[in-house]
């Protein structure tokens, strides 16, 4: 039973990589945030919808009427979950949390094992609920294991839980390695001139839009391709120049074809509270696609990728521009490619998943 703040169909990332693997060995239910129907006010309207996804993952969504207080909405969801457990004969469940906020609807249920896979410092994100930190402390008390999405996050969370383990962003090498093979150019990217400097990911408060604007102004000869949904920020705030191309969100399966057409890939992250603990999955994904990478000094990119000289690190627009200029010739550097592939050979989502499973099995055996 996974309790998540991210929609399964939003962006394919850590939860989907891990839970689609669990689904090959048992039932997986992915409980999303509720959907509020503003045209409904009847309390009896509340119900659960189940959608089947990759490898048989079942996405569970509570549909609620409008007008409920936060406490009432939590109580309705708790009742719906209790009924759902009974209807599906769920008696020995592992609870896997991505958000502490889900405790409000699930703390009355008794799992055989509780895992907190802390992929982000959610309390630092824009519009984070005030009680998130308090609920996280409750989740630390309940959790048998805490996994973190990066080394920086591990250093923070290991002070709060006795059994925390760092599992930085991993890689589906075969998927992104397709970008090194002939693929048809996506129609919306095909007319864009080269050199192309790309970014994919959620376009939100973590993206350094000022840096993007400065780079585009300083280098009209480069085309900046931005792929991803715009969330939590006003699209009107995004820099608009002829050489910035916002192509919107794309399906995970489409990303290699877009990557193949880039000359340099970037991690254009701002230096703020929301990026202090991030460990971007896209770092190894860009590298697996064979693309040179330039990043702002995100700690979990600097260490290990910057220190191993696999990714260039730049903190301001001038340095970032110079790093891109260097990266445009990096694909001819056979030594860089060899060292990059050797490092990528040490990580995979299969390996991450198996290491997590081993820890879970040990904890279950310890419980008898």
Automatic annotation (TrEMBL):
Pfam families (alphabetical): Glyco_trans_1_4 (PF13692)
Top-rank taxon: Bacteria
Signal peptide positions (record): none
Listed CDD domains: GT4_TuaH-like (cd04950)
PANTHER family: GLYCOSYLTRANSFERASE
Name of this protein: Glycosyltransferase family 1 protein
Species whose genome carries this gene: Hymenobacter algoricola
Native organism taxonomy: Bacteria, Pseudomonadati, Bacteroidota, Cytophagia, Cytophagales
């Amino acid at each position: 039973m996974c309790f998540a703040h991210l929609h399964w169909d939003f962006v394919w990332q850590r939860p989907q990589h891990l839970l689609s693997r669990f689904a090959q060995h048992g039932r997986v239910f992915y409980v999303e945030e509720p959907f509020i129907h503003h045209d409904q006010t009847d309390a009896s309207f509340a119900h659960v919808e189940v959608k089947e996804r990759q490898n048989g993952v079942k996405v569970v969504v509570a549909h609620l009427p409008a007008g409920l207080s936060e406490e009432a909405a939590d109580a309705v969801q708790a009742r719906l979950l209790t009924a759902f457990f009974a209807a599906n004969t769920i008696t020995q469940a592992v609870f896997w949390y991505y958000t502490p906020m889900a405790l409000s609807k699930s703390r009355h249920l008794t799992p055989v094992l509780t895992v907190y896979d802390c992929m982000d410092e959610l309390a630092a994100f824009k519009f984070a609920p005030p009680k998130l930190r308090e609920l996280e402390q409750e989740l630390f008390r309940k959790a048998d294991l805490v996994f973190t999405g990066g080394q920086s996050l591990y250093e923070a969370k290991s002070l709060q839980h006795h059994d925390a383990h760092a599992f930085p962003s991993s890689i589906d090498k075969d998927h992104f390695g397709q970008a090194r093979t002939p693929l048809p150019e996506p129609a919306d990217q095909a007319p864009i001139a080269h050199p192309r400097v790309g970014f994919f990911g959620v376009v939100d408060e973590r993206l350094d839009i000022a840096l993007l604007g400065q780079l585009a102004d300083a280098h009209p000869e480069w085309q900046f391709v931005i792929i991803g949904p715009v969330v939590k920020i006003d699209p009107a705030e995004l820099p608009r120049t002829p050489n910035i191309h916002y192509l919107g969100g794309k399906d995970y399966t489409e990303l290699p074809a877009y990557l193949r057409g880039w000359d340099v890939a970037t991690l254009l992250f701002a230096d703020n509270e929301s990026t202090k603990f991030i460990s971007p999955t896209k770092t190894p994904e860009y590298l697996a696609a064979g693309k040179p990478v330039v990043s702002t000094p995100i700690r979990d990119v600097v260490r290990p990728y910057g220190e191993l000289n696999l990714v260039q690190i730049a903190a301001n627009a001038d340095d970032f521009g110079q790093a891109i200029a260097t990266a445009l010739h990096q694909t001819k550097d056979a030594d860089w490619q060899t060292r990059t592939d050797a490092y990528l050979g040490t990580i995979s989502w299969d390996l991450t998943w198996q290491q997590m499973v081993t820890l879970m099995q040990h904890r279950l055996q310890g419980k008898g």
